[in-house]
UniProtKB/TrEMBL annotation:
PANTHER family: UNCHARACTERIZED PROTEIN YJBQ-RELATED (PTHR30615), UPF0047 PROTEIN C4A8.02C (PTHR30615:SF8). Belongs to the UPF0047 family. It comes from Acuticoccus sediminis. This is Secondary thiamine-phosphate synthase enzyme. It holds the Pfam family YjbQ. InterPro entries: UPF0047_YjbQ-like, YjbQ-like_sf. It comes from the Bacteria.
Length: 150
């Protein structure tokens, strides 16, 4: 489930803040592109930049291919090889999935900026914005949005 909320607009120029709430089901990719498009459509925006920031230390954002789900499988496998769970990490109070989640978030991005033209995301044909969940179990993640433009 994805919930989009517009939080306000600045008086100088066009700056709009919003938030996307995302429920995840464990490690994997959640496509949030439709929610970004909805945010832009609801705010009748022109040209500018949209910044998305995930305010969590064990989740991240990425612009990646949206055509072949095998890409996501391979990317998750690569992250698991770079930050395996079976390593004896010093930080272990929150479970065996926590420290690898921190490492995976550090290796990817917590913020992404995408160009907007005539109110539309300037993503490539095979691109989408994904929230990547790095922890086990269902979680609720928030993505803060800031649009700057006209």
């Amino acid at each position: 489930m994805i919930h989009v909320e517009t939080l306000g607009e600045a008086a100088v120029g066009r700056v709009v803040h919003g938030r996307i709430d995302v429920a995840t089901r464990g490690p994997g990719f959640t496509d949030v592109t439709a929610a970004l498009r909805s945010f832009l459509r609801d705010n009748a925006l022109g040209d500018g930049l949209l910044n998305a920031f995930v305010s969590h230390t064990t989740a991240s954002l990425t612009v990646q291919e949206n055509a072949d789900p095998d890409v996501q499988t391979d990317l998750l496998d690569a992250l698991d090889r770079l930050a395996p769970r079976n390593r004896p990490y010093v930080h272990s109070l929150e479970g065996t999935d926590d420290m690898p989640g921190h490492i995976k978030a550090m290796l990817s991005d917590t913020a992404v900026t995408i160009a907007v033209a005539a109110g539309r995301l300037r993503l490539g044909t095979w691109q989408a914005l994904y929230l990547i969940e790095h922890r086990d179990g269902g979680r609720h993640r928030s993505i803060d949005l800031t649009y700057v433009g006209r």
